[in-house]
Predict the 3D structure of the following.
Amino acid sequence: MNDEDQATHSEPALDLPVSHSLRDLRSLRVCVFHPHDSDGAQLTQQLQRIGCNVHAFWPPLASPPPGTDIVFIALCPDILIDIDDWSTVDEAPPTIAVLNYENPTVMEAMLRINAQAVVTSPIRSFGLLSVLVLAREIGRERKKMRKRIMRLEEKLGSSRKVSSAQEILCRQRGVSKDEAYRIMREQAMAKRMTVEDIASAIINASDILSSGR
Amino acid sequence: MADTEVIKVGVLFSQTGVTSAIESSQLCGTLFAIREINGSGGIAGRELVPISYDPGSDPVKYRKFAEQLILTDDVQVIFGCYMSSARKAVLPVVERWNRLLFYATLYEGFEYSENVIYTGAAPNQNSVQLADFMTSNFGARVYLVGSNYIYPYESNRIMSDLVSQYRGGSKLGERYVRLDATEHDFEEIVKEIGSTRPDFIFSTVVGNATQHFYRAYAHAGFDPASMPIASLTTSEVEVAQMGADIAAGHFTAAPYFSSITSSTNQACLEKFGRVFDSQTTPNASWEAAYFQVHLFAQAMLTAGSADIETLMPALLGTEFDAPQGRVSIDPSTHHTNLNPRIGRVNREGQFDVVWEAPAPIRPDPYLVTHRLGDWMVR
Protein backbone atom coordinates (compact mmCIF):
# COMPACT_ATOMS: atom_id res chain seq x y z
CA MET A 1 0.00 0.00 0.00
CA ASN A 2 2.67 2.45 0.98
CA ASP A 3 4.67 2.61 -2.19
CA GLU A 4 5.89 5.93 -0.94
CA ASP A 5 7.85 4.34 1.90
CA GLN A 6 9.88 2.08 -0.31
CA ALA A 7 12.69 4.41 -1.12
CA THR A 8 14.51 6.54 1.36
CA HIS A 9 17.04 7.71 -1.20
CA SER A 10 16.42 8.93 -4.66
CA GLU A 11 16.78 6.05 -7.02
CA PRO A 12 16.87 5.62 -10.78
CA ALA A 13 13.62 4.26 -12.11
CA LEU A 14 13.07 1.13 -14.15
CA ASP A 15 12.45 1.64 -17.81
CA LEU A 16 9.08 0.18 -18.66
CA PRO A 17 8.33 0.54 -22.34
CA VAL A 18 4.64 0.28 -23.15
CA SER A 19 4.01 -3.16 -24.57
CA HIS A 20 2.13 -3.77 -27.81
CA SER A 21 -0.83 -5.17 -25.95
CA LEU A 22 -1.27 -1.77 -24.29
CA ARG A 23 -0.52 0.38 -27.31
CA ASP A 24 -3.01 -1.42 -29.50
CA LEU A 25 -5.97 -0.97 -27.15
CA ARG A 26 -7.59 1.82 -29.14
CA SER A 27 -7.57 -0.14 -32.38
CA LEU A 28 -8.91 -3.37 -30.90
CA ARG A 29 -12.08 -4.77 -32.41
CA VAL A 30 -13.87 -6.39 -29.53
CA CYS A 31 -16.83 -8.70 -29.99
CA VAL A 32 -19.11 -9.05 -26.96
CA PHE A 33 -21.52 -12.00 -26.72
CA HIS A 34 -23.52 -11.03 -23.67
CA PRO A 35 -27.23 -10.61 -22.91
CA HIS A 36 -28.36 -6.98 -23.04
CA ASP A 37 -28.68 -6.57 -19.28
CA SER A 38 -26.93 -4.32 -16.76
CA ASP A 39 -23.79 -6.50 -16.79
CA GLY A 40 -23.73 -6.35 -20.57
CA ALA A 41 -24.09 -2.57 -20.49
CA GLN A 42 -21.39 -2.22 -17.83
CA LEU A 43 -19.06 -4.39 -19.94
CA THR A 44 -19.57 -2.61 -23.27
CA GLN A 45 -19.47 0.86 -21.69
CA GLN A 46 -16.18 0.21 -19.90
CA LEU A 47 -14.68 -1.23 -23.11
CA GLN A 48 -15.78 1.96 -24.89
CA ARG A 49 -14.26 4.09 -22.12
CA ILE A 50 -11.00 2.25 -22.63
CA GLY A 51 -11.42 3.18 -26.29
CA CYS A 52 -11.97 -0.16 -28.03
CA ASN A 53 -14.32 -0.68 -30.98
CA VAL A 54 -17.07 -2.76 -29.46
CA HIS A 55 -19.76 -4.81 -31.18
CA ALA A 56 -22.25 -6.58 -28.96
CA PHE A 57 -24.46 -9.50 -30.00
CA TRP A 58 -26.93 -11.76 -28.26
CA PRO A 59 -27.53 -14.60 -28.77
CA PRO A 60 -23.97 -15.38 -29.93
CA LEU A 61 -23.32 -15.49 -33.67
CA ALA A 62 -22.12 -18.70 -35.27
CA SER A 63 -18.67 -17.14 -35.12
CA PRO A 64 -17.27 -13.69 -34.30
CA PRO A 65 -17.26 -11.22 -37.23
CA PRO A 66 -14.11 -11.44 -39.39
CA GLY A 67 -11.35 -9.19 -38.12
CA THR A 68 -12.32 -9.55 -34.48
CA ASP A 69 -9.29 -9.20 -32.17
CA ILE A 70 -10.83 -10.39 -28.94
CA VAL A 71 -14.11 -11.97 -27.81
CA PHE A 72 -16.02 -11.70 -24.55
CA ILE A 73 -18.58 -14.43 -24.14
CA ALA A 74 -21.08 -14.87 -21.33
CA LEU A 75 -21.27 -18.54 -20.44
CA CYS A 76 -24.97 -18.40 -19.61
CA PRO A 77 -26.37 -21.86 -18.84
CA ASP A 78 -28.94 -21.65 -21.65
CA ILE A 79 -26.36 -21.25 -24.41
CA LEU A 80 -23.74 -23.70 -23.18
CA ILE A 81 -24.81 -26.52 -25.49
CA ASP A 82 -25.09 -24.23 -28.49
CA ILE A 83 -21.63 -22.71 -28.46
CA ASP A 84 -20.18 -23.29 -31.86
CA ASP A 85 -16.64 -24.52 -32.10
CA TRP A 86 -15.18 -21.36 -33.62
CA SER A 87 -13.25 -20.83 -30.41
CA THR A 88 -11.17 -23.97 -30.76
CA VAL A 89 -9.84 -23.40 -34.27
CA ASP A 90 -6.22 -22.29 -34.45
CA GLU A 91 -6.85 -18.79 -35.76
CA ALA A 92 -9.62 -18.02 -33.23
CA PRO A 93 -9.23 -14.64 -31.49
CA PRO A 94 -8.42 -14.78 -27.75
CA THR A 95 -11.56 -15.38 -25.73
CA ILE A 96 -12.57 -14.06 -22.32
CA ALA A 97 -15.30 -15.93 -20.47
CA VAL A 98 -17.90 -14.00 -18.47
CA LEU A 99 -19.10 -16.20 -15.63
CA ASN A 100 -22.33 -16.22 -13.65
CA TYR A 101 -21.81 -19.67 -12.17
CA GLU A 102 -18.72 -21.47 -11.00
CA ASN A 103 -20.01 -25.04 -11.19
CA PRO A 104 -18.33 -27.92 -13.07
CA THR A 105 -20.64 -27.57 -16.07
CA VAL A 106 -19.63 -23.97 -16.58
CA MET A 107 -15.97 -24.75 -15.81
CA GLU A 108 -15.99 -27.36 -18.54
CA ALA A 109 -17.55 -24.91 -20.99
CA MET A 110 -14.85 -22.39 -20.03
CA LEU A 111 -12.16 -24.94 -20.92
CA ARG A 112 -14.00 -26.01 -24.04
CA ILE A 113 -14.04 -22.50 -25.49
CA ASN A 114 -10.34 -22.17 -24.74
CA ALA A 115 -10.76 -19.10 -22.53
CA GLN A 116 -7.62 -17.07 -21.96
CA ALA A 117 -9.09 -15.05 -19.10
CA VAL A 118 -12.20 -14.75 -17.00
CA VAL A 119 -14.39 -11.97 -15.61
CA THR A 120 -17.07 -12.67 -13.07
CA SER A 121 -20.53 -11.24 -12.63
CA PRO A 122 -21.45 -8.70 -11.31
CA ILE A 123 -19.12 -6.90 -13.69
CA ARG A 124 -17.13 -3.97 -12.30
CA SER A 125 -15.26 -1.52 -14.46
CA PHE A 126 -12.14 -2.11 -12.39
CA GLY A 127 -10.29 -5.19 -13.61
CA LEU A 128 -11.50 -5.27 -17.21
CA LEU A 129 -8.44 -3.48 -18.58
CA SER A 130 -6.06 -5.99 -16.96
CA VAL A 131 -8.07 -8.94 -18.24
CA LEU A 132 -8.13 -7.46 -21.72
CA VAL A 133 -4.39 -6.85 -21.79
CA LEU A 134 -3.62 -10.26 -20.32
CA ALA A 135 -5.86 -12.18 -22.72
CA ARG A 136 -4.40 -10.30 -25.65
CA GLU A 137 -0.85 -11.02 -24.51
CA ILE A 138 -1.58 -14.70 -23.90
CA GLY A 139 -3.31 -14.91 -27.30
CA ARG A 140 -0.27 -13.35 -28.94
CA GLU A 141 2.07 -15.76 -27.13
CA ARG A 142 -0.05 -18.77 -28.12
CA LYS A 143 -0.02 -17.72 -31.74
CA LYS A 144 3.75 -17.35 -31.64
CA MET A 145 4.12 -20.75 -29.98
CA ARG A 146 1.83 -22.40 -32.52
CA LYS A 147 3.90 -21.01 -35.37
CA ARG A 148 7.07 -22.14 -33.69
CA ILE A 149 5.75 -25.65 -33.06
CA MET A 150 4.62 -25.92 -36.68
CA ARG A 151 8.05 -24.88 -37.89
CA LEU A 152 9.75 -27.35 -35.56
CA GLU A 153 7.44 -30.18 -36.62
CA GLU A 154 8.22 -29.48 -40.26
CA LYS A 155 11.90 -29.41 -39.51
CA LEU A 156 11.72 -32.61 -37.53
CA GLY A 157 9.77 -34.38 -40.31
CA SER A 158 12.23 -33.23 -42.89
CA SER A 159 15.27 -34.28 -40.90
CA ARG A 160 13.75 -37.73 -40.36
CA LYS A 161 13.23 -38.08 -44.09
CA VAL A 162 16.75 -36.94 -44.89
CA SER A 163 18.16 -39.36 -42.36
CA SER A 164 16.30 -42.40 -43.75
CA ALA A 165 17.30 -41.45 -47.29
CA GLN A 166 20.90 -41.25 -46.08
CA GLU A 167 20.62 -44.77 -44.68
CA ILE A 168 19.26 -46.10 -47.97
CA LEU A 169 22.16 -44.55 -49.88
CA CYS A 170 24.68 -45.89 -47.34
CA ARG A 171 23.29 -49.39 -47.77
CA GLN A 172 22.98 -49.42 -51.54
CA ARG A 173 26.10 -47.46 -52.50
CA GLY A 174 28.29 -48.43 -49.56
CA VAL A 175 29.14 -44.81 -48.74
CA SER A 176 29.41 -43.02 -45.41
CA LYS A 177 26.53 -40.95 -43.99
CA ASP A 178 28.34 -37.71 -44.71
CA GLU A 179 29.04 -38.79 -48.26
CA ALA A 180 25.37 -39.79 -48.67
CA TYR A 181 24.31 -36.31 -47.60
CA ARG A 182 26.80 -34.73 -50.01
CA ILE A 183 25.34 -36.75 -52.89
CA MET A 184 21.81 -35.71 -52.01
CA ARG A 185 22.78 -32.07 -51.78
CA GLU A 186 24.55 -32.19 -55.13
CA GLN A 187 21.43 -33.70 -56.72
CA ALA A 188 19.25 -31.08 -55.07
CA MET A 189 21.41 -28.26 -56.45
CA ALA A 190 21.53 -29.77 -59.94
CA LYS A 191 17.77 -30.29 -60.06
CA ARG A 192 16.92 -27.09 -58.17
CA MET A 193 15.01 -28.98 -55.57
CA THR A 194 15.29 -29.10 -51.79
CA VAL A 195 17.33 -31.79 -50.06
CA GLU A 196 14.07 -32.89 -48.49
CA ASP A 197 12.49 -33.45 -51.93
CA ILE A 198 15.47 -35.51 -53.05
CA ALA A 199 15.20 -37.51 -49.82
CA SER A 200 11.51 -38.18 -50.53
CA ALA A 201 12.36 -39.29 -54.06
CA ILE A 202 15.00 -41.73 -52.79
CA ILE A 203 12.63 -43.14 -50.17
CA ASN A 204 9.85 -43.59 -52.72
CA ALA A 205 12.16 -45.18 -55.24
CA SER A 206 13.54 -47.51 -52.62
CA ASP A 207 10.02 -48.53 -51.60
CA ILE A 208 9.12 -49.38 -55.17
CA LEU A 209 12.35 -51.27 -55.78
CA SER A 210 12.12 -53.28 -52.60
CA SER A 211 8.45 -54.10 -53.01
CA GLY A 212 9.22 -55.66 -56.40
CA ARG A 213 11.68 -58.06 -54.82
CA MET B 1 -40.66 17.79 7.92
CA ALA B 2 -38.03 16.10 5.81
CA ASP B 3 -37.96 19.08 3.44
CA THR B 4 -36.32 21.40 5.95
CA GLU B 5 -33.91 18.80 7.22
CA VAL B 6 -30.23 19.76 6.91
CA ILE B 7 -28.10 17.95 4.31
CA LYS B 8 -24.96 16.56 5.91
CA VAL B 9 -21.97 16.16 3.61
CA GLY B 10 -18.59 14.61 4.45
CA VAL B 11 -15.35 16.52 3.90
CA LEU B 12 -11.95 14.77 3.95
CA PHE B 13 -8.96 17.02 3.38
CA SER B 14 -5.70 16.84 5.34
CA GLN B 15 -4.77 19.82 7.45
CA THR B 16 -1.67 18.01 8.68
CA GLY B 17 0.95 15.81 7.01
CA VAL B 18 2.89 16.01 3.75
CA THR B 19 0.10 17.43 1.57
CA SER B 20 -1.49 19.67 4.24
CA ALA B 21 -0.95 22.98 2.44
CA ILE B 22 -2.65 22.07 -0.83
CA GLU B 23 -5.40 20.05 0.88
CA SER B 24 -6.14 22.90 3.28
CA SER B 25 -6.79 25.05 0.22
CA GLN B 26 -9.24 22.39 -1.05
CA LEU B 27 -10.92 22.43 2.35
CA CYS B 28 -11.30 26.23 2.15
CA GLY B 29 -12.69 25.97 -1.40
CA THR B 30 -15.23 23.38 -0.24
CA LEU B 31 -16.34 25.35 2.83
CA PHE B 32 -16.50 28.54 0.78
CA ALA B 33 -18.87 26.96 -1.74
CA ILE B 34 -21.03 25.52 1.05
CA ARG B 35 -21.21 28.97 2.62
CA GLU B 36 -22.21 30.52 -0.69
CA ILE B 37 -24.95 27.95 -1.21
CA ASN B 38 -26.30 28.36 2.32
CA GLY B 39 -26.06 32.14 1.95
CA SER B 40 -28.44 32.01 -0.99
CA GLY B 41 -31.06 29.88 0.72
CA GLY B 42 -29.41 26.46 0.78
CA ILE B 43 -30.66 23.73 -1.50
CA ALA B 44 -34.41 24.43 -1.80
CA GLY B 45 -34.33 25.80 1.72
CA ARG B 46 -32.24 22.99 3.17
CA GLU B 47 -28.93 23.89 4.76
CA LEU B 48 -25.71 22.11 3.77
CA VAL B 49 -23.77 21.02 6.86
CA PRO B 50 -20.17 19.91 6.36
CA ILE B 51 -18.76 17.22 8.63
CA SER B 52 -15.01 17.41 8.29
CA TYR B 53 -12.12 15.27 9.55
CA ASP B 54 -8.37 15.64 9.19
CA PRO B 55 -6.89 12.39 7.79
CA GLY B 56 -3.32 13.68 8.22
CA SER B 57 -2.22 12.74 4.65
CA ASP B 58 -2.47 9.07 5.67
CA PRO B 59 -4.45 6.64 3.44
CA VAL B 60 -5.34 4.43 6.42
CA LYS B 61 -6.99 7.37 8.18
CA TYR B 62 -8.79 8.33 4.98
CA ARG B 63 -10.41 4.92 4.89
CA LYS B 64 -11.26 5.05 8.60
CA PHE B 65 -12.83 8.52 8.40
CA ALA B 66 -14.72 7.64 5.22
CA GLU B 67 -16.29 4.70 7.07
CA GLN B 68 -17.10 6.92 10.02
CA LEU B 69 -18.72 9.54 7.78
CA ILE B 70 -20.92 6.90 6.18
CA LEU B 71 -21.72 4.65 9.12
CA THR B 72 -21.85 7.11 12.02
CA ASP B 73 -22.55 10.49 10.43
CA ASP B 74 -24.75 9.01 7.72
CA VAL B 75 -23.59 11.19 4.82
CA GLN B 76 -24.47 10.35 1.19
CA VAL B 77 -21.69 12.39 -0.32
CA ILE B 78 -18.00 12.92 0.50
CA PHE B 79 -15.83 15.71 -0.89
CA GLY B 80 -12.15 14.91 -0.52
CA CYS B 81 -8.80 13.19 -1.17
CA TYR B 82 -5.71 14.60 -2.85
CA MET B 83 -3.14 11.86 -3.39
CA SER B 84 -4.15 8.81 -5.45
CA SER B 85 -3.29 6.59 -2.48
CA ALA B 86 -6.01 8.36 -0.44
CA ARG B 87 -8.57 8.02 -3.24
CA LYS B 88 -7.77 4.32 -3.62
CA ALA B 89 -8.26 3.88 0.13
CA VAL B 90 -11.68 5.57 0.11
CA LEU B 91 -12.91 3.99 -3.14
CA PRO B 92 -13.83 0.53 -1.76
CA VAL B 93 -15.67 2.17 1.13
CA VAL B 94 -17.91 4.36 -1.03
CA GLU B 95 -18.48 1.47 -3.45
CA ARG B 96 -19.43 -0.90 -0.64
CA TRP B 97 -22.00 1.49 0.85
CA ASN B 98 -22.98 2.94 -2.52
CA ARG B 99 -22.12 6.55 -1.65
CA LEU B 100 -20.58 9.25 -3.80
CA LEU B 101 -17.05 10.67 -3.68
CA PHE B 102 -16.21 14.01 -5.34
CA TYR B 103 -12.49 14.02 -6.14
CA ALA B 104 -11.12 17.49 -6.91
CA THR B 105 -7.56 16.65 -7.86
CA LEU B 106 -5.68 16.11 -11.09
CA TYR B 107 -4.50 12.49 -11.25
CA GLU B 108 -2.97 9.89 -13.55
CA GLY B 109 -6.18 8.53 -15.12
CA PHE B 110 -7.17 4.88 -15.69
CA GLU B 111 -10.04 4.84 -13.31
CA TYR B 112 -13.80 4.87 -13.53
CA SER B 113 -16.14 4.17 -10.69
CA GLU B 114 -19.91 4.56 -10.57
CA ASN B 115 -19.30 6.08 -7.14
CA VAL B 116 -16.82 8.81 -8.02
CA ILE B 117 -17.02 12.15 -9.82
CA TYR B 118 -13.58 13.35 -10.93
CA THR B 119 -13.27 17.13 -11.26
CA GLY B 120 -9.48 17.47 -11.61
CA ALA B 121 -7.58 17.14 -14.88
CA ALA B 122 -6.86 13.79 -16.57
CA PRO B 123 -3.49 13.52 -18.39
CA ASN B 124 -5.05 14.43 -21.75
CA GLN B 125 -6.09 17.74 -20.17
CA ASN B 126 -2.69 18.81 -18.84
CA SER B 127 0.28 16.55 -19.73
CA VAL B 128 -0.25 16.58 -23.49
CA GLN B 129 -0.54 20.37 -23.64
CA LEU B 130 2.44 20.87 -21.33
CA ALA B 131 4.63 18.48 -23.35
CA ASP B 132 3.69 20.24 -26.55
CA PHE B 133 4.42 23.67 -25.13
CA MET B 134 7.72 22.75 -23.48
CA THR B 135 9.10 20.79 -26.44
CA SER B 136 8.19 23.56 -28.90
CA ASN B 137 9.71 26.30 -26.78
CA PHE B 138 12.67 24.64 -25.10
CA GLY B 139 13.40 21.27 -26.72
CA ALA B 140 12.55 17.63 -26.15
CA ARG B 141 15.37 16.45 -23.88
CA VAL B 142 13.70 16.02 -20.51
CA TYR B 143 14.79 15.12 -16.98
CA LEU B 144 12.05 13.65 -14.76
CA VAL B 145 11.81 14.14 -11.00
CA GLY B 146 8.94 12.86 -8.87
CA SER B 147 7.70 11.86 -5.45
CA ASN B 148 7.85 8.14 -4.91
CA TYR B 149 4.27 6.95 -5.54
CA ILE B 150 1.92 5.97 -8.30
CA TYR B 151 0.88 9.38 -9.66
CA PRO B 152 4.43 10.46 -10.56
CA TYR B 153 5.26 7.05 -12.06
CA GLU B 154 2.35 7.19 -14.47
CA SER B 155 2.68 10.92 -15.22
CA ASN B 156 6.37 10.45 -15.99
CA ARG B 157 5.61 7.48 -18.21
CA ILE B 158 3.22 9.66 -20.20
CA MET B 159 5.73 12.52 -20.42
CA SER B 160 8.54 10.18 -21.62
CA ASP B 161 6.17 8.76 -24.19
CA LEU B 162 5.22 12.25 -25.39
CA VAL B 163 8.74 13.66 -25.72
CA SER B 164 9.91 10.49 -27.48
CA GLN B 165 7.48 11.36 -30.30
CA TYR B 166 9.29 14.64 -30.79
CA ARG B 167 12.35 14.96 -32.99
CA GLY B 168 15.43 14.60 -30.77
CA GLY B 169 13.23 13.68 -27.85
CA SER B 170 14.92 11.77 -25.04
CA LYS B 171 14.79 11.11 -21.34
CA LEU B 172 18.02 12.10 -19.64
CA GLY B 173 17.10 10.84 -16.18
CA GLU B 174 14.24 9.77 -13.98
CA ARG B 175 14.48 10.06 -10.20
CA TYR B 176 12.13 9.63 -7.28
CA VAL B 177 12.30 11.05 -3.76
CA ARG B 178 10.34 10.20 -0.63
CA LEU B 179 7.15 12.19 0.00
CA ASP B 180 8.65 14.08 2.95
CA ALA B 181 11.83 14.91 1.06
CA THR B 182 13.97 17.86 2.22
CA GLU B 183 16.39 19.98 0.21
CA HIS B 184 19.13 17.46 1.02
CA ASP B 185 17.27 14.73 -0.89
CA PHE B 186 17.55 16.78 -4.07
CA GLU B 187 21.31 17.45 -3.95
CA GLU B 188 22.32 14.47 -6.06
CA ILE B 189 19.46 15.09 -8.49
CA VAL B 190 20.39 18.72 -8.99
CA LYS B 191 23.99 17.65 -9.61
CA GLU B 192 22.81 15.22 -12.28
CA ILE B 193 20.67 17.93 -13.87
CA GLY B 194 23.75 20.13 -13.98
CA SER B 195 25.77 17.48 -15.78
CA THR B 196 23.06 16.22 -18.18
CA ARG B 197 21.74 19.70 -19.10
CA PRO B 198 18.18 18.82 -20.19
CA ASP B 199 16.04 21.24 -22.21
CA PHE B 200 13.52 21.21 -19.40
CA ILE B 201 12.77 19.38 -16.16
CA PHE B 202 9.43 17.72 -15.56
CA SER B 203 8.59 17.69 -11.87
CA THR B 204 5.94 15.47 -10.35
CA VAL B 205 7.18 16.19 -6.84
CA VAL B 206 4.03 16.82 -4.80
CA GLY B 207 3.09 18.51 -1.55
CA ASN B 208 5.34 20.30 0.88
CA ALA B 209 8.48 18.74 -0.65
CA THR B 210 7.97 20.75 -3.85
CA GLN B 211 9.49 23.92 -2.40
CA HIS B 212 12.70 22.04 -1.49
CA PHE B 213 13.23 20.89 -5.05
CA TYR B 214 12.76 24.36 -6.56
CA ARG B 215 15.00 25.81 -3.85
CA ALA B 216 17.74 23.25 -4.56
CA TYR B 217 17.43 24.15 -8.24
CA ALA B 218 17.75 27.86 -7.49
CA HIS B 219 20.69 27.34 -5.15
CA ALA B 220 22.51 25.42 -7.87
CA GLY B 221 22.37 28.64 -9.92
CA PHE B 222 20.30 27.25 -12.80
CA ASP B 223 18.36 29.65 -15.03
CA PRO B 224 14.62 29.07 -15.67
CA ALA B 225 14.94 31.05 -18.91
CA SER B 226 17.02 28.29 -20.49
CA MET B 227 16.19 25.16 -18.45
CA PRO B 228 12.83 25.63 -16.69
CA ILE B 229 10.93 23.23 -14.47
CA ALA B 230 7.52 22.20 -15.83
CA SER B 231 4.95 20.74 -13.48
CA LEU B 232 1.31 19.77 -13.08
CA THR B 233 1.25 20.00 -9.30
CA THR B 234 3.21 23.15 -8.52
CA SER B 235 0.33 25.55 -7.88
CA GLU B 236 0.02 28.97 -6.26
CA VAL B 237 0.17 27.20 -2.86
CA GLU B 238 3.57 25.62 -3.50
CA VAL B 239 4.78 28.87 -5.08
CA ALA B 240 3.79 30.72 -1.90
CA GLN B 241 5.67 28.13 0.15
CA MET B 242 8.92 28.60 -1.79
CA GLY B 243 8.61 32.31 -2.49
CA ALA B 244 8.19 34.12 -5.80
CA ASP B 245 11.93 34.72 -6.23
CA ILE B 246 12.54 30.95 -6.26
CA ALA B 247 9.51 30.08 -8.41
CA ALA B 248 9.64 32.82 -11.04
CA GLY B 249 10.11 31.62 -14.61
CA HIS B 250 8.92 28.04 -14.07
CA PHE B 251 5.85 26.54 -15.77
CA THR B 252 2.73 24.70 -14.65
CA ALA B 253 -0.19 23.28 -16.65
CA ALA B 254 -3.59 23.46 -14.96
CA PRO B 255 -7.19 24.31 -15.84
CA TYR B 256 -7.16 27.23 -13.42
CA PHE B 257 -4.80 29.95 -12.20
CA SER B 258 -5.97 32.57 -9.75
CA SER B 259 -4.63 35.22 -12.16
CA ILE B 260 -7.43 34.53 -14.67
CA THR B 261 -8.94 37.93 -15.48
CA SER B 262 -12.53 36.86 -16.17
CA SER B 263 -15.17 38.68 -14.16
CA THR B 264 -16.48 35.37 -12.76
CA ASN B 265 -13.06 34.56 -11.36
CA GLN B 266 -12.36 38.04 -10.07
CA ALA B 267 -15.74 38.23 -8.32
CA CYS B 268 -15.23 34.79 -6.81
CA LEU B 269 -11.74 35.68 -5.52
CA GLU B 270 -12.98 38.94 -4.08
CA LYS B 271 -15.79 37.18 -2.21
CA PHE B 272 -13.46 34.43 -1.06
CA GLY B 273 -10.95 36.96 0.20
CA ARG B 274 -13.59 38.69 2.28
CA VAL B 275 -14.61 35.47 4.04
CA PHE B 276 -11.39 33.50 4.29
CA ASP B 277 -8.99 36.43 4.23
CA SER B 278 -5.47 35.03 3.90
CA GLN B 279 -6.04 31.49 5.18
CA THR B 280 -5.00 29.96 1.88
CA THR B 281 -3.94 30.69 -1.69
CA PRO B 282 -6.50 29.96 -4.42
CA ASN B 283 -5.21 27.44 -6.99
CA ALA B 284 -6.50 24.77 -9.41
CA SER B 285 -7.25 22.18 -6.71
CA TRP B 286 -8.99 24.84 -4.66
CA GLU B 287 -11.08 25.81 -7.65
CA ALA B 288 -12.09 22.21 -8.44
CA ALA B 289 -13.00 21.67 -4.79
CA TYR B 290 -15.09 24.84 -5.02
CA PHE B 291 -16.96 24.20 -8.24
CA GLN B 292 -17.69 20.52 -7.52
CA VAL B 293 -19.79 21.53 -4.48
CA HIS B 294 -21.79 23.82 -6.76
CA LEU B 295 -22.24 21.01 -9.31
CA PHE B 296 -23.51 18.82 -6.48
CA ALA B 297 -25.88 21.53 -5.22
CA GLN B 298 -27.30 22.12 -8.70
CA ALA B 299 -27.89 18.42 -9.29
CA MET B 300 -29.41 17.99 -5.85
CA LEU B 301 -31.77 20.87 -6.49
CA THR B 302 -32.99 19.08 -9.62
CA ALA B 303 -33.05 15.58 -8.14
CA GLY B 304 -34.34 16.49 -4.68
CA SER B 305 -32.17 13.88 -2.99
CA ALA B 306 -28.50 13.23 -2.25
CA ASP B 307 -29.02 9.50 -2.72
CA ILE B 308 -26.60 8.42 -5.44
CA GLU B 309 -29.18 6.63 -7.60
CA THR B 310 -31.41 9.71 -7.70
CA LEU B 311 -28.63 12.27 -7.82
CA MET B 312 -26.39 10.73 -10.51
CA PRO B 313 -28.66 11.20 -13.54
CA ALA B 314 -29.03 14.88 -12.64
CA LEU B 315 -25.31 15.24 -12.00
CA LEU B 316 -24.12 13.75 -15.29
CA GLY B 317 -24.15 16.50 -17.84
CA THR B 318 -24.56 19.25 -15.25
CA GLU B 319 -22.82 22.49 -16.25
CA PHE B 320 -21.45 25.32 -14.15
CA ASP B 321 -19.77 28.65 -14.83
CA ALA B 322 -16.67 28.00 -12.73
CA PRO B 323 -13.85 30.50 -12.18
CA GLN B 324 -11.87 28.67 -14.95
CA GLY B 325 -14.81 28.97 -17.37
CA ARG B 326 -17.63 26.62 -18.21
CA VAL B 327 -17.25 23.08 -16.82
CA SER B 328 -19.50 20.04 -17.16
CA ILE B 329 -19.47 16.38 -16.17
CA ASP B 330 -18.85 13.93 -19.00
CA PRO B 331 -21.57 11.26 -18.54
CA SER B 332 -19.55 8.41 -20.00
CA THR B 333 -16.38 8.79 -17.87
CA HIS B 334 -17.61 10.71 -14.78
CA HIS B 335 -14.67 13.05 -15.38
CA THR B 336 -14.99 16.75 -16.18
CA ASN B 337 -14.75 18.81 -19.38
CA LEU B 338 -12.06 21.32 -18.42
CA ASN B 339 -10.18 24.31 -19.82
CA PRO B 340 -6.43 23.52 -20.00
CA ARG B 341 -3.97 26.37 -19.53
CA ILE B 342 -0.24 26.83 -19.14
CA GLY B 343 1.13 29.44 -16.77
CA ARG B 344 4.57 30.87 -16.02
CA VAL B 345 5.30 32.16 -12.53
CA ASN B 346 5.98 35.90 -12.46
CA ARG B 347 7.84 38.06 -9.95
CA GLU B 348 4.69 38.45 -7.83
CA GLY B 349 4.30 34.68 -7.44
CA GLN B 350 1.28 34.63 -9.76
CA PHE B 351 0.97 32.71 -12.99
CA ASP B 352 1.01 34.59 -16.27
CA VAL B 353 -1.18 32.51 -18.58
CA VAL B 354 1.01 31.89 -21.63
CA TRP B 355 -1.37 29.51 -23.40
CA GLU B 356 -4.97 28.44 -23.05
CA ALA B 357 -7.20 25.97 -24.88
CA PRO B 358 -9.72 27.74 -27.11
CA ALA B 359 -12.49 25.42 -25.92
CA PRO B 360 -13.05 22.90 -23.10
CA ILE B 361 -11.24 19.59 -23.59
CA ARG B 362 -13.11 16.33 -23.11
CA PRO B 363 -11.59 13.99 -20.49
CA ASP B 364 -10.10 10.74 -21.81
CA PRO B 365 -8.89 8.91 -18.69
CA TYR B 366 -8.06 5.65 -20.48
CA LEU B 367 -5.69 7.07 -23.08
CA VAL B 368 -2.55 4.87 -23.05
CA THR B 369 -0.66 6.43 -25.91
CA HIS B 370 -0.88 10.18 -25.97
CA ARG B 371 0.02 11.92 -29.18
CA LEU B 372 1.48 15.37 -29.36
CA GLY B 373 -1.06 17.57 -31.01
CA ASP B 374 -3.90 15.07 -31.38
CA TRP B 375 -6.09 16.88 -28.84
CA MET B 376 -5.68 20.29 -30.42
CA VAL B 377 -8.56 22.50 -31.42
CA ARG B 378 -6.35 25.06 -33.06
Remarks:
- The CA atoms of residues 26 and 51 of chain A lie 5 Å apart.
- Strands of chain A lie at 11-12, 29-33, 53-57, 70-74, 95-99, 117-120.
- The interface with chain B takes residues 1-13, 16, 18, 22-23, 25-26, 45-46, 48-51, 125-126, 129 of chain A (CB under 8 Å).
- Confidence is low (pLDDT under 50) at residues 1-16 of chain A.
